[in-house]
Amino acid sequence: MSDNARIAIEKVLFLGGESDAARAFFDLVAHQENEESGPDPKVLFVPSAGPRTPQEGAWVPCFGSNDKNALIRQVLNFGAQLVSTLTVDGRELSLYSAPDQGLFGITALADPRPHSEALGEVAFIDLYTPLAEKAANYYANALSCRVIHEQVPTPGDYRFLVWGVEPVAGVVDMLDVLPAAVPPHWIPYWRVLDLEAEVARLSDLGARVRVPVTDSALGPFALLADPFGVTFGLQTPASDTLLLEHGRSHT
Amino acid sequence: MTAADSNFADHRALADALTAERPLHALVRALHRISSAPVAVIDLRGGVLVSVPERAEWEAEELVAVSPPADSPVAGCILRSVELEGEPVAVLAMRGQSAPAELLSFAATLAGIELSRRHAILSGRRELLGQVLEDVIAGYLGEREGARRLLDHGLDVSKPHEVVVGSAEGSPRRLRSYPWNLHTLLTQQNDPHLRTIVDERLVLIVPEKAGLFVAKLCHEHLASFGSNARVGVSKPRLGVRGLRLGYFEARNALSEGYGVHVHRTQDLPTALLIASLEAGAPLGDLSAEALAPLLEYDQKNDTSLVDSLRCYLGKDGDMSATAAELFVHRNTLRNRLRLVEELTGRDVSLPSNYAHFWLATSGLDLSTGANLSSLFERGTAQDV
């Protein structure tokens, strides 16, 4: 892969589950009071993606590269396996299984677009996996990223993937916070202004709070399950700045 | 320090938490400090309200599966019921058994007191909103005044909203005392979606497309404390007049029975009637004019010609069914309809007059805020 091939989260897929109902719910998550925000175009809902998709649905990030074919060779060389190929939003998209069995996609990076920090959009994504070190090293190699491993007090041993200085994704040691029987899964974070008000609003819509509003070194966040049981997160614009500063401080 | 001193100090630390800026958080932190064990308050749906440490793992659904909780540990946790007005609304969970159970019970009582305090404030706001909504539904407020008063409660009626109406058979008091969303109590803000009680029914006004999600959750709550829980959802509506219409749509959908139902209008006359109302046509005045001879006769003679006519139209002109519904002899009904024809100069059996009377009675109902089931009898509700 060429040295200047850029890597970024291009799309976030909701695979399987009740995709129409999930789309309706996350359209409401994206809708922010006093903002002209519509659904996040980065988030796509795919009705079925084969037998590996959990019944209630699952989030899968699609990494985009402006050298897609080289990126595909690289992810395969480091040990991923092709699971399926989909056409989503008019674009071909391949799904892979990483060595920790977590799913991810590869697609072409769209034309450069301005960096968005709009409310109601997916701002970041974390991988929860019982094989955190192995997974972080895999993604670092496969996506030409660096790993910043923060030795923070448990629970929540956290690794941070950055491309250059740009935040790409986080990797959480799932065994610190969840039973080992839970399969590896991704959790996207929507950007909201008032975390507690949003937690109350989404609870009214049937979401369950898994982790109430919590402060962290990368900004406050909360984790919720949608009405169908799929986990998602909320964070504030403060995390955008803190994530970027975090990436820069470890160059 | 004696054991009694230590016990008093622990109780004092818990009680002092209620004076903190965020009392429930302070209470859970204090209990965690005393016990060194993870502590959480979890609502009865399994949502974590407060947890110390924040990222502690809780088998939340398992912990709230039995309410009120048993004395014996569940999933390695001691549980105590947190009650609001005598009803369990959450559990206080402490992992392990590192603090006296009696201290946990005391903390659960304090948590209940704090939630009750917050709930009382929110209930006051809901009462005020209820008064405004009752005026909207009764048609006492014009578009501008209604919009202004609803905006005072944070509702911008220039954006489309859906109305959700729910009911359950049981204690009406429970409908008012039920907390609905404990996260709202924690934020110390208003309800995220306007919520009040009107005519012993729960009423929510929510943004377009949110109605079904809110309705399903409301049904879950209503079914937890009452029988025959039912929830109706309106179509998205704009403006004060639209909100009023939405209320009746939701109420009509609710009348479909147990479960969640969404109003869906199918026939043209109802759609046209609704459209004319939304456009601000003086339907009430026109209807009163059309029915003036009947209304006057009813008032002077203490009769029920308009009600009889409404029922006859609702039964699609079926004399037997109408007589049975009104609990009168067929001849009595025939005499009443003959009187209607004499007073109005219109033959009720002619299709053109049938439409005239249907529009008149429906328009009159809507303008007076009376039972509107006749308006929506031809609209159907969609099961969800």
TrEMBL record, chain A:
Gene3D superfamilies documented for this protein: 2,3-Dihydroxybiphenyl 1,2-Dioxygenase, domain 1
Domain VOC span(s) in chain numbering: 121-237
Source domain of life: Bacteria
Protein name: VOC domain-containing protein
Lineage: Bacteria, Bacillati, Actinomycetota, Actinomycetes, Micrococcales
